[in-house]
């Protein structure tokens, strides 16, 4: 019997580009976990009933209101001690209004869509306790990300500083927004919920996912 942690990927209506774009993440999961992936909504409840150690929601189809029964199950799973992470294609292709509605109605969180650009983010010193001693987390990383605005600053994992600059030609906007974060990890009940706003499958993102799952990169 395998002693590896079990991870469930919920990839409803998975686009064909996912496996290629997120090869690094899938390789790390294969090496360190026993992971399964479901692409049909009818298979989610059964997969969750097996109580995986972590769940990754990899694209925004899961957020649609038609899946409200599954939303209740995922919230129950987290409150009872599970970990769910919104990552992969989720932040890059979800409509901002749907993202905000999902986090508000399903999780009761006042999260809003923040800035969207490529800049340098820095590991937050006050980050959640579970991530305080993760040596695999880079002190800084340059990624293009959809940030979250309105989260508790104590839940920030990667955020900007006054030293951050937008690393895109033609964008003159201010990079540093102290009320925004590219990566957030919050406690809900006895479990945790994470959000990773990277939209380009950077290698460092794999390290963040693994850290949130309590695994080596």
Overall description:
This protein has 217 residues and is of the alpha/beta class. The chain has one domain: Class I glutamine amidotransferase (GATase) domain (Rossmann fold). Helix content is 27%, strand content 28%. The protein has seven helices and ten strands. Strands 2-1-3-4-10-9-7-5-6-8 form a ten-stranded mixed sheet. A hairpin with a 2-residue loop joins strand 9 and strand 10. The longest helix is centred in the middle third of the chain and has 12 residues. The radius of gyration is 16 Å and the shape is globular. The two termini are 23 Å apart.
Mind sketching the topology for me?
Blueprint: E1 5-10, H1 18-21, H2 23-32, E2 33-38, H3 44-49, E3 54-57, H4 68-79, E4 83-86, H5 90-93, H6 96-107, E5 112-123, E6 140-149, E7 156-159, E8 180-181, E9 183-188, E10 191-196, H7 203-212
Parallel strand pairs: 1-2, 1-3, 3-4, 4-10
Antiparallel strand pairs: 5-6, 5-7, 6-8, 7-9, 9-10
Helix pairs in contact: 2-7
Shape: globular
CATH topology: Rossmann fold
Total domain modules:
1
- Largest sheet descriptor: 10 strands, mixed
* Top-tier CATH class: Alpha Beta
Class inferred from helices and paired strands:
alpha/beta
What descriptors fit this protein?
217 residues; alpha/beta; Rossmann fold; ten-stranded mixed sheet; 27% helix; globular
């Amino acid at each position: 019997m395998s002693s590896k942690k079990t991870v469930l990927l919920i990839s409803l209506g998975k686009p064909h580009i996912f496996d290629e774009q997120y090869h690094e993440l899938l390789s790390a999961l294969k090496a360190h976990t026993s992971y399964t992936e479901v692409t049909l909504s009818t298979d989610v409840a059964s997969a969750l009933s097996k109580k995986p150690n972590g769940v990754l929601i990899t694209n925004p189809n899961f957020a649609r209101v038609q899946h409200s029964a599954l939303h209740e199950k995922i919230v129950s799973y987290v409150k009872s001690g599970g970990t769910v992470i919104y990552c992969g294609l989720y932040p890059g292709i979800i409509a901002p209004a749907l993202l905000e509605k999902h986090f508000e109605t399903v999780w009761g969180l006042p999260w809003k869509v923040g800035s969207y650009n490529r800049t340098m983010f820095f590991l937050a010193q006050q980050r959640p306790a579970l991530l305080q001693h993760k040596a695999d987390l880079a002190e800084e990383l340059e990624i293009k990300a959809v940030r979250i605005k309105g989260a508790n600053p104590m839940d920030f994992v990667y955020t900007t500083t006054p030293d951050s600059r937008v690393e895109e030609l033609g964008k003159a906007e201010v990079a540093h927004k102290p009320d925004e974060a590219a990566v957030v990890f919050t406690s809900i009940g006895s479990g945790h919920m994470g959000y990773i706003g990277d939209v380009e499958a950077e290698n460092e993102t794999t390290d963040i996912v693994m850290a949130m799952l309590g695994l080596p990169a």
